[in-house]
Every structure is written in structure tokens, then in C-alpha cells.
TrEMBL record:
InterPro entries: ConA-like_dom_sf (IPR013320), Kinase-like_dom_sf (IPR011009), L-type_Lectin-RKs (IPR050528), Lectin_legB_Mn/Ca_BS (IPR019825), Legume_lectin_dom (IPR001220), Prot_kinase_dom (IPR000719), Protein_kinase_ATP_BS (IPR017441), Ser/Thr_kinase_AS (IPR008271). In the N-terminal section; belongs to the leguminous lectin family. Belongs to the leguminous lectin family. This is non-specific serine/threonine protein kinase. It is an enzyme of class 2 (transferase). Keywords: ATP-binding, Cell membrane, Glycoprotein, Kinase, Lectin, Membrane, Nucleotide-binding, Receptor, Serine/threonine-protein kinase, Signal, Transferase, Transmembrane, Transmembrane helix. GO terms for molecular function: ATP binding; carbohydrate binding; protein serine/threonine kinase activity. It comes from the Eukaryota. It is a single-pass type I membrane protein. Its EC number is 2.7.11.1. The keyword Membrane applies. Residues 348-624 form the Protein kinase domain. GO terms for biological process: defense response to bacterium; defense response to oomycetes. SMART domains: S_TKc (SM00220).
């Protein structure tokens, strides 16, 4: 046998079950749907199957064996059929610390699970919690941590029964011959072999993994035994793989696959597999950029702590869903009824969906008196968590400013919280910079929107008796109202703290590319980390480029680094968005870019405050503007040659 064609496909009929027994030791030469059904972005990439497409912001892909496996010999039998499978996979992100999700081995009644999101949850689940019992069973090889789903870490294996919330979860690794647990990192590109044994008589699933080179461990990594499995397995099921991604590139590869429903899956020959390793060049992103990215993880406001959750479980009240609880009465002016919101949004119909993000979905609604609103649905794990969250949110309701998106009210149904905001007809700032070549925002409007946002943020930081840290400033959170006035939205992530008090939150929230570097180490968002994110928005708007552009050349990947380099070399004007050239005076643009860079100073103490920023953008020729200082800050400490010894005085000294 030629070693380079280790492909064997053997199928034959047995009565009454259709026997399946195949071994794809490589995907070379597998070119058509007879061999593998590829859905959406999944594709053959030389000898492997790639599940997602790097160039799409949201991407999902699935690869199924083309014929269904018979899982029940007759419909009145409770027993399921058994199978054994083994495969080799590799998960490799472009940026090691960016968020990613890994991949899932899937047993599904359909190749297109209804409601599956394109962006998250392996491309197979909705973000609803177990809406109906449908036949879908997955083994997740999850490389991201979603605390709201009880994920213990960002490297685990779980059994999912038609829900992203796993029935059981264990950290990835294997038990060696002496019974010691050896962790296995699944997100560094290494080739990992997995074995899954499914016993349909005893309703047991065993999952075992080990890096290539380690022989099959005798004790499985995970063992799940529960008759409930039967509810998620239909008479015939597709079997295969699925994965999804958001803006961060992560290559999920399947290198080999064997399966048998008549015995043990054939051994994969693990010699000669291609190797996938992190590109060394990614380490050349500067320390600041890495730090900015590190904090990562698509963290969510998991306001609930497990402890609270257990506490709540114990002391659970008589009723589950819709009873209004005492504490809810404390909160805030307008509580909408669920029926009211459901009616306003045509039953939360997908036609009224404005968008969906880490938090949940946002719908457009029209109240009975004709007022247009945006309804944001936020899922929550526990009522206790919800209560804390409400305490924060209700304070937010008291914030009023022309440059903030006004919150109108709220509603709770079960663990779902719905927040009602004013509807912003002209969508978010990023769409006017990136998505609409024909309706591009001009220079004057861009500058105006930046000034508006500065005022809104200044109000949050300084206009109130408490400092409100927004924590998720980014261009997609800046909305334009009917007069094209900029308004800061999404206070969902905001957290209040008293002036002078050190906040001790440990949850890092925010969006990669906008996060200040110090959040990597101290994880305490402050008003100056907001200023950093705002600085990124300035650069984004002035340059017409995203904060991190992975498709750009290496020097240009991280916007801040690129602009700063140009600035240090005296060519900052070249960073300006070429599409609005001629609309501004060079000096104005330069000042704005310098301001953006100064806001992104690596040292939080040296960043200007929002007061300084407003003075500069809105003020009357602001005499107070320390223009020289701004120039120095813009270098981010990379002094222009000659003045190395000079100390730069902090613009706003530590309090
Ligand atoms: C595995 O493949 C290599 C070449 O790719 C071959 O030399 C070797 O004999 C194979 N091993 C087995 C057990 O078939
Ligand atoms: C697909 O491949 C099989 C062999 O694997 C071949 O018999 C069949 O003709 C091919 N079909 C098409 C449409 O190319
Ligand atoms: C990724 O998707 C884009 C379209 O969104 C397509 O043009 C491109 O060919 C795809 N890339 C690969 C490698 O399939
Ligand atoms: C299962 O159903 C078939 C007909 O559909 C029937 O002949 C058989 O007796 C049933 N078996 C049991 C155990 O009920
Ligand atoms: C499974 O899919 C088939 C069609 O492929 C459908 O007829 C059947 O109702 C589905 N089963 C369940 C339980 O959804
Ligand atoms: C097994 O793992 C444990 C701890 O992980 C280690 O101490 C032990 O040396 C390992 N045993 C073998 C035989 O590799
Ligand atoms: C799962 O592993 C346990 C413990 O090693 C073993 O007793 C059981 O038979 C295994 N089940 C399957 C389906 O392989
Ligand atoms: C499944 O489990 C049952 C009961 O433990 C056992 O009798 C049977 O041999 C197992 N089947 C397979 C395929 O491992
Ligand atoms: C419509 O109703 C909402 C809430 O009930 C209220 O906030 C808003 O002011 C009303 N608008 C008008 C135009 O009456
Ligand atoms: C902004 O929205 C308002 C109200 O929908 C609309 O009249 C206006 O034309 C929009 N502005 C632009 C520039 O599209
Ligand atoms: C955080 O602050 C709260 C009170 O505001 C306190 O109860 C808690 O112990 C603090 N946690 C840590 C880790 O310091």
C-alpha cells in the first residue's frame, strides 16, 4: 500500500442496521459530497478539513459524514445503537490570547440545527437555554471560557445535550499509566487525538484525548452515563464536526477521522501529519498590544457567583418564572410587562432583530403609543445575580445626558432581563465608517460625533457624584440619533464605584482592541481605561481603520502602534482616512490623531482626562490645552531622539 494514500472507505449492509465503518487517515483526494458533506464555510484545505473562514467576521462550518447513522433499531426500542469513533484535530488561533471557541463533535438529526448562531456556540446552538428537546448531542472541545455557562476554564471538554450549557465538564487532559492527570492544551495548534465511545445500551459516553505520540490512555478523560441521552438521539443521526468564530481568527482543523458502529473504530496512523504552530511573528506585536489583547475572553457580566447560585438554589422560592419579587419593586421607574414588550417587538420576531452580541439580542420595538424603542435581552443565570445587576442598572436609569442613549425601563421574565432604550434610527458609528462606502461620514461629522461622545463620557466620569466607568467604549457602542448626534450606549457593562474608592471587581469586561494594557495585570477598569478605549475610537474614526486589522501587514496590524510609529517618524498625516482627504486642514487632523495617541498612552496616569479632551474638542480654542504636552504624550514614551533624559510631567497626577 502506498503510504501517501491511507484512505480506506468501507461500507456494507447488515441487517437491520446500516453498518458504517470508515477511516479517513487524511482528507487528500476526498473531493466530493459522497465522502463528506461540508456546510457553509467548511472546506478541504489540502489534507485537512478547515471549519471556518478566516476572512469572514462571523463564520461557521460543519462537516458531516454524508449518510446518517442508525441510532435506534426500531422506534419502540428504548435502547440506542453504539458506536466508536476516533479523530485527530488541531485548534490554532492567530493571536494566542484572543477569544475562541474550539470545535465540537456532533450527533445531530439535521445538518442545519435550527436557530444555530453563526458566530458563537460552535455553530450549532442558539443562545436560548434549551428551548425544546431536539435531537442534538455534542462533545465540545471548548477553548474559550464563558463563566455564565459554568465553564471552569478556557480549555475543557463537555457533553452538550442540545444546549450550550454542558451536562458535564472536565478540564482537557488525560490520565497516564500511573493514574496521574496530565493537562493537554488544546489551543496551541498541536495535533490531538480523541476517542469517543458511545454505548447506546448503557447510555454512556466516554471521551479520551491525548496528544499525538501518546498512546491511548486506558482511563477516559470524561465519562457520562445518563439515560437522558436517549431524549437527544433520534432514530437516525448525522455525525460530524462543527465550529464557529467571531472576529478573531482561529483555525479548527480535522486531520483524520475513523468511525465504526459495529466494533472499535480503526486506529488512525498518526505518522506524517502536518504540524500547525503559532506564527512566531505574532510575538512581534508590542507588549502593549499583547497586553491589550490578553485580558480578552469574551467575558460577559456574569454577575452571578456560583456560591450565590447554589444559595439561591437552596432557598429557591415557590415559583420559578414570572412572580414579581419584593426586591424588584425597589427598582426604578418603569417596569414594562413582558406582554407589552412582546407585542412591541412582534413576539421578538427575527425581522425586528437589530443585532446580537455577547450580551444577547437587541430587537426594535414600537410601543402602543407609537414610541420606537430598542429592547435588549440579557440572559442571566440566577436571580441573585440579577438582583445585583438590577441595582447597578437602576442607577444607570438615573443618568441623563444628551449624549447618552436613554434607558426607558426594564422587564424580567424568569432569568431573562429586558432593557428598554430609546431607538437610535441611524445605527452605530462603525457602520458609517466601515460599512457604507456610499454614505461615508465626512470629516466634520466625524469630529462632531467624537466631541459628542467625549461629552457623554465626561458626564459619566465627572458629571455626577459617582464615577461611572463605562468599560466598553467602542465604535459599535456609539449610536447616532435622528439628528446624527453621537450617543454612548450599552451601559450593561458599566459598574459604579464611589469617588476615591478602589473598585475590587475581578471580572474583566470589554472588547479586544479597545482594552487598556493595564487591565491585563490589574483587571480594575478605571476612568483612565475608558480614556484609552476612547483614544482607540478617535484613531479608528480618523484613520477609517479597525483597531486590529489582521489582514494588514505586520506593522499595520495594530492601529495604535502603526499611528504612533508614523507620528514618531513625523508622518502622522499619512494615517488619516484617505477617503476624506481634502475635507480637513492638516493641522486639525494632526491634532486629533495626537489626542488619540495621548489617550492611548501606556501609562494610565499620563492619559488626559475626559475633561481635558472635551476642552480640546469642544472648548473655545482651549487656552488650557497643553499642546506641547500632548505632542510628547502622543509618542507613548518613545521619545523623539535627543530628549531621552527629559521627564514628562503627568498631565493628571495620581490622586
Ligand atoms: C503509517 O504510515 C507510515 C507512512 O505514512 C508507514 O510507514 C507505516 O507503516 C504506517 N503504520 C502502520 C501501522 O500502518
Ligand atoms: C465522488 O467520488 C466518488 C469516489 O469517491 C466517485 O465515485 C463519484 O463519481 C464522485 N462524484 C462526483 C459528482 O464527482
Ligand atoms: C471566505 O469567504 C469569502 C466570502 O465571504 C470568500 O470570498 C472566500 O473565498 C472564502 N475563503 C475561503 C478560503 O473559502
Ligand atoms: C415494536 O413494534 C413492532 C411493530 O412496529 C412490534 O412488532 C413489536 O412487537 C414491538 N416490540 C415491542 C417490544 O413492543
Ligand atoms: C429528525 O429529522 C427528520 C427529517 O430529517 C424529521 O422527520 C424528524 O421529525 C426529526 N426528528 C425530530 C425528533 O425532530
Ligand atoms: C503521570 O502523571 C503524574 C502527574 O501528572 C506524574 O507525576 C507521573 O510521573 C506520571 N507518570 C508517568 C508514568 O508518566
Ligand atoms: C467508559 O469508561 C469506563 C471506565 O473506564 C468503563 O468502565 C466503561 O465501560 C466505558 N464505557 C464505554 C462506552 O466505553
Ligand atoms: C454497553 O454496555 C452494556 C452494559 O454495560 C454491555 O453489556 C455492552 O457490551 C456494551 N456495549 C458495547 C458496544 O460496549
Ligand atoms: C410612550 O410610552 C412610554 C412608556 O410607556 C413613555 O416613556 C413615552 O413617553 C410615551 N411616549 C409618548 C409620545 O407618549
Ligand atoms: C438619520 O435618521 C433620521 C430619522 O430616521 C433620518 O431622517 C435621517 O435621514 C438619517 N440621517 C442620515 C444621514 O441618514
Ligand atoms: C470587594 O468589596 C466588597 C465590598 O465592597 C467586599 O465585601 C469584598 O470582600 C471585596 N472583595 C475583595 C476580593 O477584596
Amino acid at each position: 500500500m502506498l503510504p501517501l494514500i491511507p484512505l480506506l472507505v468501507v461500507q456494507f449492509f447488515l441487517s437491520p442496521t446500516f453498518a458504517v465503518n470508515f477511516l479517513y487517515n487524511s482528507f487528500t483526494g476526498i473531493v466530493n459530497a459522497t465522502d463528506l458533506t461540508l456546510i457553509n464555510d467548511a472546506r478541504f484545505d489540502s489534507s485537512v478539513v478547515r471549519l471556518t473562514n478566516d476572512s469572514n467576521q462571523y463564520s461557521f462550518g460543519r462537516a458531516f459524514y454524508p449518510t446518517k447513522l442508525t441510532m435506534r433499531s426500531s422506534s419502540n426500542s428504548s435502547a440506542l445503537s453504539s458506536f466508536s469513533t476516533s479523530f485527530v484535530f488541531s485548534i490554532l488561533p492567530t493571536i494566542a490570547t484572543s477569544p475562541g471557541f474550539g470545535l465540537a463533535f456532533v450527533l445531530s438529526n439535521t445538518t442545519s440545527p435550527p436557530g444555530a448562531l453563526a458566530s458563537q456556540y460552535f455553530g450549532i446552538f442558539t443562545d436560548d437555554k434549551v428551548p425544546t428537546v431536539a435531537p442534538l448531542l455534542a462533545v465540545e472541545f471548548d477553548t474559550g471560557r464563558n463563566p455564565e455557562f459554568n465553564d471552569p476554564d478556557d480549555n475543557h471538554i463537555g457533553i452538550d445535550l442540545n444546549s450550550i450549557i454542558s451536562e458535564t465538564i472536565v478540564t482537557a487532559g488525560y490520565y497516564n499509566s500511573t493514574g496521574g492527570f496530565v493537562p493537554v492544551r488544546m489551543r496551541n495548534g498541536q495535533n490531538i487525538r480523541a476517542w469517543i465511545d458511545f454505548n447506546g445500551t448503557s447510555f454512556e459516553i466516554n471521551v479520551t484525548i491525548a496528544p499525538i505520540g501518546v498512546s491511548r490512555p486506558s482511563r477516559p478523560t470524561l465519562s457520562f452515563k445518563n439515560p437522558v441521552i436517549a431524549n437527544y438521539v433520534s432514530a437516525e443521526m448525522y455525525v460530524g464536526f462543527s465550529a464557529s468564530k467571531t472576529e478573531w481568527i482561529e483555525a479548527q482543523r480535522v486531520l483524520a477521522w475513523s468511525l465504526s458502529n459495529t466494533g472499535v473504530a480503526r486506529e488512525i496512523n498518526t505518522t506524517n501529519f502536518p504540524l500547525f504552530e503559532p506564527e512566531s511573528s505574532s510575538s512581534s506585536l508590542s507588549a502593549g498590544a499583547i497586553a491589550g489583547i490578553t485580558v480578552g475572553s469574551v467575558a460577559f457580566v456574569a454577575t452571578c457567583a456560583t456560591g450565590f447560585y447554589l444559595y439561591w438554589r437552596k432557598s429557591k422560592l415557590k415559583d420559578e418564572e414570572d412572580e414579581i419579587e419584593d426586591w424588584e419593586l425597589e427598582y426604578w421607574p418603569h417596569r414594562f410587562s413582558y406582554e407589552e414588550l412582546s407585542q412591541a417587538t412582534n413576539g421578538f420576531s427575527s425581522e425586528d432583530l437589530l443585532g446580537s452580541g455577547g450580551f444577547g439580542k437587541v430587537y426594535k420595538g414600537t410601543l402602543s403609543n407609537g414610541t420606537e424603542v430598542a429592547v435588549k435581552c440579557v440572559n442571566h443565570d440566577s436571580k441573585q445575580g440579577l438582583r445585583e445587576f438590577m441595582a447597578e442598572i437602576s442607577s444607570m436609569g438615573r443618568l441623563q445626558h444628551k449624549n447618552l442613549v436613554q434607558m426607558r425601563g426594564w422587564c424580567r421574565k424568569g432569568n431573562q432581563l429586558m432593557l428598554v432604550y430609546d431607538y437610535m434610527p441611524n445605527r452605530s458609528l462603525n457602520t458609517w465608517i466601515f460599512n457604507q462606502p456610499t454614505k461615508l461620514l465626512g470629516w466634520e461629522q466625524r469630529r462632531k460625533v467624537l466631541a459628542d461622545v467625549a461629552e457623554g463620557l465626561n458626564y459619566l466620569h465627572h458629571g455626577w457624584d459617582q464615577v461611572v466607568v463605562h468599560r466598553d467604549i467602542k465604535s459599535s457602542n456609539i449610536l447616532l440619533d435622528s439628528d446624527m448626534q453621537g450617543r454612548l450606549g450599552d451601559f450593561g457593562l458599566a459598574k459604579l464605584y464611589q469617588h476615591g474608592e478602589v473598585p475590587n471587581t475581578t471580572r474583566v469586561v470589554g472588547t479586544l482592541g479597545y482594552l487598556a494594557p493595564e487591565l491585563a495585570t490589574v483587571a480594575v477598569p478605571t476612568s483612565s481605561s475608558d480614556v484609552y478605549s476612547y483614544g482607540v475610537v478617535i484613531l479608528e474614526v480618523a484613520c477609517g481603520r479597525k483597531p486590529i486589522e489582521l489582514s494588514a501587514s505586520e506593522e499595520e496590524t495594530v492601529l495604535i502602534e502603526w499611528v504612533r510609529e508614523l507620528y514618531v517618524n513625523g508622518k502622522v498625516g499619512e494615517a488619516a482616512d484617505p477617503r476624506i482627504r481634502g475635507q480637513y486642514e492638516a493641522g486639525e487632523m494632526e491634532l486629533l490623531l495626537k489626542l488619540g495617541l495621548a489617550c492611548c498612552h501606556p501609562d494610565p496616569q499620563r492619559r488626559p482626562t475626559m475633561k481635558d479632551v472635551v476642552a480640546l474638542l469642544v472648548g473655545e480654542q482651549a487656552a488650557a490645552t497643553p499642546a506641547d504636552l500632548l505632542s510628547e504624550l502622543a509618542t507613548g514614551d518613545r521619545r523623539i531622539s535627543g530628549d531621552e533624559s527629559e521627564e514628562v510631567a503627568p498631565l493628571n497626577p495620581p490622586v
